[in-house]
Amino acid sequence: MQEDIDKLVDWKQFYSQYLPGLKPKGDELHGLCPFHNEKNPSFGIKIKTGQYKCLSCGASGNAWTFLQEYKSMSKEEATKTIMDFAGIKPAASKTSARRPKFTIEEYATVKRLDIEKLQSYGIKNSHKGMVLPYMDEKGNLMATRYRHSLKGGPRFTWVRGSKVTPYGLWMLRIAKEKGYIIIVEGESDCHTLWEHDIPALGVPGADTFQPRWAQHFEGLNVYLYKEPEQSGEIFIKKVCKGLLENHFSGKVYLLLLQSHKDPSDLHLAGQDVFKEQWAAAINMANPLDIRIASCLAEKVIDDQPFTPIRPENWRYSEYGVYGLDEKGIEEKISPLPVIITKRLQDVDTQTEKLEVAWRRHGKWESIKAEKATLFQYSKIAELANTGMPVSSKNAKEMVSYLFDMEAANMEFLPTVHSVSHLGWLGKDQFLPGHAGEIALDMDAKRGMHFLVNGFEKAGDFDVWKTCMEYVIQNPIAQLMLAGSFASPLLQIIGHRNFIIHVWGASKGGKTAAMKAALSVWGNPERIMVSFNATQVGLERTCQFLNNLPLGVDERQLAGDKQEFLDKLVYAVSAGQGKTRGDKGGGLQAKAFWNLVVLTTGEESLAGDTSHSGVRTRALELYGIPLPDEKEASNVHRVTDLHYGHAGVIFMKHVLEELRREKDFFHKEYSNVYRQLQDKWPHIAQPHISAIAVLSVAHYWARQWVWGITEEQAKEEMIRMAVAGVDLLSTSQETDYVDRAWDFTAAWIASNDDRFREKCHQEQYGYYDSLLNQYWLVPSIYKKVLTEAGYSVSRVLREFYEKGFIDAQSAGGGKMTFSVMKRWKDKSIRMIVLKKTLEID
């Protein structure tokens, strides 16, 4: 019948009498849809068959359904109208048979749905088929759609004047209670999901989603179900584009079923199958970037890490990158495919990098590089050393290609916030372990790769904790372990950097104690450095660690370079590097850090001539950290295999306490500091302050990491503080004076002939054998002290206060630390050493 009518009817002329705005386009007629209000034409009619479809509202059918819906004709009236137009007499036609009705009972049976639930949604039977009412959130009727059959023929038609809207708006209350919504195509998948108490909303047609509908999803996590056909791609693209245009800010996920076409198909497989596979699908749903999904960039290589939009005049494939030359002829610019996959924005400097990937031997490789490098002919060739297929030969074309690719994907490239250091990221995030979505830009620290990879977890946490119980029993090792936990607390307490230097004879377990301390954060063998390093190198390491402890082993590697060590102590403890020029011009960003430095060696860190600042910045602990060689060997073995757990756990609790009370740690530290200062007023303030930090760090670590009681932790903290004080010199000032006196004795002994009457060189003074006293020429002695790095005024004043030298009043309450002596028939001022020098 249809074929006969097609031969007799000019469908272009037939439809034009009802829709005068139609325009031919190929083998179709195009125009505005008569079944809903629209501004952009989406209605198409096949000129050969008269079949129509609207890509926007989903209306479809043929001439019969068109007349029934648009002109409200019955089936018989529509048939007569078409026959008349075709010139066929009614008697010769066979149009008396009515189209069989499609009922709710048939639908419920085929879809295995509860008919009473379907009826509660307003679904009912009519002479045209099953009625599907579309209502708003308040239950007001917005549109009506008929379903005429399950398959074949026109399955759906809209009642004239219907306002196309999502299906199931009146059920949104359930979605708002549960916090998420499943977006599907059509009504039947909604009915199926509602059957399982899953909130869902239906879009009537793959291409019908409108941006204003996104307002219904605010505050919800949105799961978009993608059907396997091409219509599924169109559906995802259309919905994402609408969400993007409406500035939707919620999370969107892509939902797939592995072995079934749609939720309805899965439901027909059985209740148990549905429950299991649906839960798996939700768990495997991938976050969707609606900016990218709305563009539907074409994937070229199956395993590519990102699918960028292809820039105009360029293309890439598994065989390379191709561009058009000046004559428009395609030429290959790279033997390997190259794409931009990611944008990285440094949260500290707000500078940007791009991640560029290329595929070699079936595997994608990548590098993160600054735009200034990628977009300059003279610099991009430097990336050849990384394996990127670029050289001076194709540098210009590669720059143009990458520039155009970034421009084409400016709005769609995944953006990752990154940092180039560990430790604190703002006030509420920390690396390692608690950085959220912030990534570590390892390419920014290519010289630190060995160190970076050391900050990881390995082995059994319980084995590590058990081993550390022995470490904690030994005061020096206990202080080093506490220093590791204390390092990230310095910034939030507002404490300056300090050094814990453990020194003494070899085979004292110093390196084992160091490894125990560093194993809090990672693999100690990889994150430990040595004194065989430059000042610049250690500064850069400190900058990278930021707030994590720096472990420097083997002080003896620095040899007798005391001036180098002193500068190193000042530089590291200062917390900032020097301002240095950048090789590309301008100045490098200044480096900052706030951490505890752990050092070991067989010699003291401070030398005889070191300024007091060196000693106040370092807790010099002389002794044996781990006296039992067998247990020290066990610490070596355990920390080689088990590490990196404790620091992450410790910082989890630190962050929780900060969220509860931002001044919590500073208050606790201040309280302990005051108690220690009252108990030991003679100890230098920097040392008391450092011991206070170590004490509270140990107190919290023992509770949070080992799980001991607060009372036990407090007892341990007190014992550790007492042990720390005992290990320090009883008086920082005495230490300085003693070193200055020992230096003076050594200087006189090495120049003994300069203090004799028959000296034929410049005399430095005179030795009074009767009184057993040395008289020193002030100008010479002061010069010697200055060249040795001592403060002349401080040394002389403290010598006098301890009774080592004589002094006289200079008037006005001042003292002069010399006396008048008769020497070589002249009265001159001399510094007289009253204390007997022990000179062999």
Tell me about this structure.
There is one protein chain. With 840 residues, the chain is of the alpha/beta class. It has 5 domains: 2-92, Alpha-Beta Complex (DNA Primase, Chain A); 104-293, 3-Layer(aba) Sandwich (Dna Topoisomerase Vi A Subunit, Chain: A, domain 2), CATH 3.40.1360.10; 314-418, no CATH class; 461-578 and 590-648 and 662-727, Rossmann fold (3-Layer(aba) Sandwich), CATH 3.40.50; 739-833. Helices cover 38% and strands 19% of the residues. It is built from 32 helices and 35 strands. It has a 5-stranded antiparallel sheet. A 5-stranded mixed sheet has the order 11-10-12-13-14, with helices on both faces. The protein has a 5-stranded mixed sheet with strand order 20-19-18-21-24. Residues 92-99 and 730-734 have low confidence and may be disordered.
Primary descriptors:
840 residues; alpha/beta; DNA Primase, Chain A; Dna Topoisomerase Vi A Subunit, Chain: A, domain 2; 5 domains; 5-stranded antiparallel β-sheet; 5-stranded mixed β-sheet; 35 strands; DnaG_primase; DNA binding; Cch_HTH
